[in-house]
Each structure stands twice: as C-alpha cells, then as structure tokens.
Hints:
mainly alpha, 51% helix, 22 helices, 4-stranded mixed β-sheet
Amino acid sequence: MTDKLLEDLVDYALGQQQFSELARETARLCLLDSLGCGLLALQYPACTKLLGPMVPGLEMNKGVPIPGTAYRLDPIAGAFNIGTMVRWLDYNDTWLAAEWGHPSDNLGAILAVADYRHRVLGRNTSVADVLDAIIRAHEIQGVLALNNSFNRVGLDHVLLVRIASTAVACRLLGATRQQCFNALSHAWIDGGALRTYRHAPNTGSRKSWAAGDATSRAVRLALISLTGEMGYATALSAPKWGFQDVLFKSQAITLTRPLESYVMENVLFKISFPAEFHAQTAVEAAIQLHPLLVGRWDQIESIQVETQEAGVRIIDKSGPLKNPADRDHCLQYMIAIGLLKGSLTAQDYEDSSAADPAIDRLRSLMQVRENTDFTRGYFDPDQRSIPNAIEVRFKDGSATPRAEVHFPVGHRRRRQEGIPLLLEKFRHNASTRYSAPKVSQLETSLKSLDNLQELSVTELLDSLAAS
C-alpha cells in the first residue's frame, strides 16, 4: 500500500502532458518577472549578505551562474541563492486559495537543476524545458493549496515549495518513478516550517529566505533519491507517525481537481507594488484617494477599511513594527504609505522611510473589518477576487468617496492591462543591474516561445551573470 497522493504527484511530475499556449506564455512572463524581482533584490544588503557559497571560497568552475553576480555554485547552493533573490522583496507572483503562496519561489530549484543538467550532465535543456518545469511546479503547489489550509494548523506555505521543487527537480534529473516517489516521501517527512517568523512578535527576515531554503532542500532530496536511497510508502497516511496525524490534525490531504495547468493560467502577478497580495487592491484604493487628502491630513477623523477574512487574519496589525519584514505584512502600513505618497516601493519599508511619524498617525486612525461579500468573492473559484475598500472620514462630517477595488492589475481578469506594465516592471528591475542595451537584449531573448526552444538554459544564465 502506498499513499495515492504521492502516486498522483509522481505521475504528474514525470508525465508527458502538452500544456496550453496560455500556460506556456504565462510561464514565459513568470520567468521574466521572477528574474527581474531577483535582480532588484540585489540592491538590498540584507539579501546579498546571504548569497554566495555556504562556505566561502567553494565556488565551482562549472557551477550554476547566479544572476547579477559573479558566483558559480553547486545546484543546492544555487537553488538557495536564486530562490532567495526571487522571493526577497515579496514582489514575485502569487497564488491565493485555502493556502496562499508564491509558486515562482520554485524557480531556484528549477534554474539550478536545469543548468546542472545541461552544463554538467550534458543533457540538452532549453528554456522551453524550464517553462515546462515552471508550469508543473506552479500546478503542484497551487492545487495542493486549493483546499488544504496548512497555515490554519501553524505550518508555513514554503512546505509546498519544497514538495513542488522536489517533484520537478526529479523530472529534470531524469529520476525513475520510484526515485521520484522516494524523494517526495522525504519532502513530506521533513514536515512544515512553523509560521513563527511571519507573525508578531517574531516577524522577521527569514520569511524572505525561507523559500530559497525550501528549494535548496528539494534539490538535495532529489539528488539523494538518485543514489537509490529508500522512500516511505505511507509518509502521509501512516497512523500516529504520518504527516497527516502528526502535523495536519489527522485531516487527509487531497487534490480537488486534476493536475493540469490551471494554476499557471490563473496565477496572480504582483505588478504595481511590492506588497503582500491581500493588500494589493487596498494600496490601489489608497492611491486613488491620495489626491483628495493632500493638505487635509489634520482634518482626518477615521479611515474605514474593509477587507477579506484572510486579510484580517494575516496582515491586520497594530502596535510597533520592528523591521521591513513586519511592515510589508501590515495592511495599515501599506495603506498609510499609499495615502501619504500616492505610491509604494520597496524602499518605503526601510527604517529611514518608516521614521515618518505621519505613517503611524494614519495607522492609528484606521478601523479594519471583514466584509463577508469580499470573503465570498475571494473563495469563489470563478472570481478569486482580492477585494479591499477604503473610505476616509473627516472631522467636519464629510468623507471621501468609497474607493473599492476587487481585482488587482496582476489578476487574470486584468491580464491585458497588466502585461505592458509587467514588462515595464522587468525593464526597471533589470536596469538596476545592467545597461539599457543589455536589458533590451535580455527582453528580446525571452520575447517569444519559439525563441526559447532554441535558447539553452546555460546560455540564459551565462548572459545574466555579472561580467
């Protein structure tokens, strides 16, 4: 007897599915956007101090090139570096369901293993193969998240990154069906990271490198499986000692839909703001109200905020905020910046920006409540909206119009509006590391699906390395 869920994940990971044009084109945009997010993160010393080999001086001549740097690392360290860069600013794509997460976190494992496969193992690996792996990783992570809420039992969504990355790493490494099953059983047995570092009073920077850690662990487990190391047939369902009994309150972990390309086709891009996704529409609403508030800051009596249940549960915070990781997961802080500045950038989370007393004053005036209609839209599979609404009330009894936004610009319903902005986001982010001609060359290289059939992953990563 073996766990059917593990069997289903293996069958999908190693299968020969042909994905839709929409899925492949969206995966291309995901790759472009994720690389840009990683390059932008290199501006932040808190990120760069974690990069490079785990032990100084142990770089490799044939190692994985880390974008925007001169590092060449083994695939395990490479996965950590790339995964950490992509995730650092909370600006990469998002999936919201019973369990939220960031499926492009898996790119650390995918790029590192794909490069190793081509450069060291000598197996031709194109960027089109990378897109195939990205679609599969998104689907595994996202479908597992649809109705299995790990955060409700205190587990962090990066455990799904570890699962998905292990599965696609096995595919890229040429694992047999049994080897892939074994590796996935280990990925579940590793358990789930506690969410301690995402919540007050312990919110901290680990949330920015936890995904990189998960992808690197996945690569390690995949490589272990290739040695013939045994797996565990009922890692999930074993009575008393299996994942479900120990960590999931004895609930069965299930897949509520077939594994296809649903998640990639409906993924959410963070385009406008580096902000926790439940707040994206709140920031957009705040920016709409900004012109109506200039010169009237002292006249504000209260700020009424309506959000979804998940927004209340995750990012409704009062009291002191200790660091950027605390601030970019505080609904009131993000709204305050949008109201005050009419914009929001990653720099607004740094200590120098947070020192403005006007931010905490506006936070103290906010009253946050759940709008049950917003929550229904959030969970409706035909909508998957992320609504927020803001109304500012003044001491003279007047008020601003109610600014209400249901779908952020990165939502599938606003995809055509969002794609030009997504490309502009990439150009801006890449320009922090490369010259304008180099940025244009990179965009051209990744411009069409046809190009990516011919472009090898090593050519792409070599072109991204610092000269």
